[in-house]
Amino acid sequence: MRVLIGVDQAEGASEVAGWVRRFSFKDLAEEWMHVVPQQSGVTWALDPFLAADQTERLQEKTARQIERDLKERSGSASVRVKIGNPVRELLNRADETHTDLLAVRGSDKNSLAAFFLGSVARALVEGASQSVLLTRGAAPQRPLRVVVATDHSEYMDKALEKLTAGAPQGIGHLTVLHVLPAPYKADMDQLAQEIAHEAYGRPVRTPEEVTGAAAKALGEKLGLPAEAIHSVVAHGSISDAIETTLSAADADLLILGAKGHTLLERLTLGSVSFRAVTTCPKSVLVLRV
């Protein structure tokens, strides 16, 4: 599992690394990267060539200082510091190294909304072809308690397969959540069941059965005991369902799938779940195939 940690400051790097290591991926290869934003010439210099030279010197000095700070904290992780456009440099590096996961720190404010709406952060999430981990706060000392919000799509199944291929050993409790629209009738009407029975020779599986089976299969791949595997089928608002389930499960992390060309298009649960992610007080893992 190759992970690129985008570092906004030295203090935040250890926080994000703590989350990455809490997953306990098999064969983890970790790199820390900080990008010093490229600036135009300092405004106080009358000579444009002098201004450009002074700016370059300042940026180089800043980069070297940050590199020293990161190396002191990184342990065995490699460290890379560059000067340029943060979004472009991080995305290019992720592609160059065939990164599986791009991990960055979320907002220090009361929600992830500020983080997502920031131009750099939003561009990273929208532009990455890799899965993205958004951390908020320090990683828990206990095994992770996660909620996986799924639409049972083929894409989401593949995304979860990619996650389990990394053999994470740090997940200790799993809740799989499936949200149905409000008009859906949980007790399918008799006519629909009769038609299904006639067509397939058996009753169709209920959403509860499908979600329960998906939770069991995923939990077994993660090596979890039966008592640590749960499933929830909710009705109505996706945002409300996610919030309620996270609270009930005492979860540390929300996992979603993503696809498409923009963040709103990529989230398999739609724009409603985007709002849920931006206001989620927990860390979020956006899976991408």
How would you characterize the overall build of this protein?
This protein is α/β, with parallel strands linked by helices and 289 residues long. It has two domains: 1-136, Rossmann fold (3-Layer(aba) Sandwich); 140-289, Rossmann fold (3-Layer(aba) Sandwich). It has helices at 10-22, 48-74, 86-96, 113-117, 119-127, 154-165, 190-200, 207-221, 238-248, 263-266, 271-279; strands at 2-6, 29-37, 78-84, 101-105, 131-135, 144-149, 171-180, 229-235, 253-258, 283-288. A ten-stranded mixed sheet has the order 3-2-1-4-5-10-9-6-7-8, sandwiched between helices. Strand 2 (29-37), helix 2 (48-74) and strand 3 form a beta-alpha-beta unit. It is elongated and about 80 Å long. The mean pLDDT is 82.
